[in-house]
Amino acid sequence: MLEHVDICQEVLNAEKCNQYPVILKKCTDVHIGTKIEIHSQQPQTSYLKKEDEEENEMYVNCSQKLKYKYKTYFAYMRSYLWEGMRNDFSLKVYFVDLTIQKADLFGKERGDKVNLKEIFSNQDDDHQTILVTGHPGYGKTTLCRKIAYDWASADYLQHFDLTACIVLRELGDKSVKQALFDNLHDNSSFHKDWKLHFRQLNILVILDGFDEIVEKSKIIKFIREESYDISSQMTIVVTSRPQATEEIREDMKMRFSIKGFSPEYQKKCIQLMFREDESKARSLLEKVEEDEFYKEIAECPLMLHILCCLFNNAELGEIKSTTDLYIRMFTLVTERYVRKTDQNCKFERGKHFMGENLLLR
User: Fold this and answer.
1) pLDDT bucket at 234, cuts 50 / 70 / 90
2) How do residues 91-130 score in pLDDT, each as one tens digit?
3) CA dist list (Å): 41 to 29, 97, 117
4) CA-CA distance, 103 to 100, in Å (whole number)?
5) Nearest residue to 91 (alpha-carbon basis) of 151, 133, 19, 31
6) Predicted confidence band at 140 (pLDDT cuts at 50, 70, 90)?
7) The model's pTM
8) Most buried residue among 17, 87, 204, 326 by CB atoms closer than 10 A?
9) Which of 206, 87, 67 is nearest to 149 (CA)?
10) Which uninterrupted H or E stretch holds 113?
11) Start-to-end CA span in the chain (Å)
């Protein structure tokens, strides 16, 4: 080596390599001073070291199991009012794109309509925070399920290595960080050290129902602190009713608002629900177009779904108020429960529906 030091210095310019300042980023082993290394083997192409192969296999296994869960369990919208065998509606077939608009700091619309692909188009390797607000029944939870389903089955979310969907009202005593790890542990046999490897992953975390949790400090702590400890690349989506976002709205880099169904979307939704019975679809469309009460409540996606269920069950009748609508809903739910559990003796019929007196007590 000493015989060829002059040649090496000339080729590598080793004498001058320390004359200029150098910024080192994300380095684990740093050598100060002239260093010449000669390797006889080709450099490894994988960024993973040999000892990390087990962790990489666990990550792949976790990703596959999560995607299977989202493509199956998250693939349907549940319905407890639709009479008959088909109580679940496929997201792929029945999902109607929600009207989503950019919003300002206070939740007011300030931009054009956007779709999910546009919301997640930013693929920068840093932290992203997205707030989605909407009134009750406007589709926030369904949207969360759709995002998780799309990560498992579509292309526009494939830059995320893992996706976790957490219902905040089910947190209990857990922190969001613990709920996130538990969500992943349920889908793979990790050992504790695997948490360290999250630093390398781009993770999408969906937090549904900020307005439904009392200890909002848990979510705030996760957004401001814990998320940075978990991964250097993370996108956090938070859903909430508009009036409950005061404590986190300034933490959100992007804000969007879900709007009600337009007449065009109402028509599309009704046609999908009665895709096998066009005459029923036309009849309900006429009611929605002609009756101001139906027209108003049909702007809410959940209420329009309920109208479709009641109409399918021939239960609409002379509904002229929200109270009438709720009474019909309770009638269907309680009567179906009584039939299913054979508890007629416990549910006496009140003035309006079975089980009414018990409910009032």
Assistant:
1) very high
2) 888 888 888 998 887 667 777 788 888 899 877 768 899 9
3) 20, 54, 44
4) 9
5) 151
6) very high
7) 0.77
8) 204
9) 67
10) strand 109-114
11) 93
DSSP assignment string, 234-272: EEEEEEE-GGG-TTTGGG-SEEEEEEPPPHHHHHHHHHH
User: Which residue bears the tokens 């309509």?
Assistant: 113
* Alpha helices, DSSP H, located in 159-262: 176-185, 216-221, 227-230
Count the helix, strand and coil residues of the chain and give each as a percent rounded to the nearest 5.
50, 15, 35
* Residue with the two structure tokens 């959100």: 252
- Supply the mean pLDDT for the chain: 81
Cα separation, 170 vs 246, in Å, equals 22
Tokens of 345: 């003796």
Distance separating alpha carbons of residues 169 and 136, to the nearest angstrom = 15
Report residue 340 as tokens. 């299913």
For the record, the structure tokens of 280 come out as: 């029923």
State pLDDT tens for residues 282-310.
Answer: 999 999 999 899 999 999 999 999 999 88
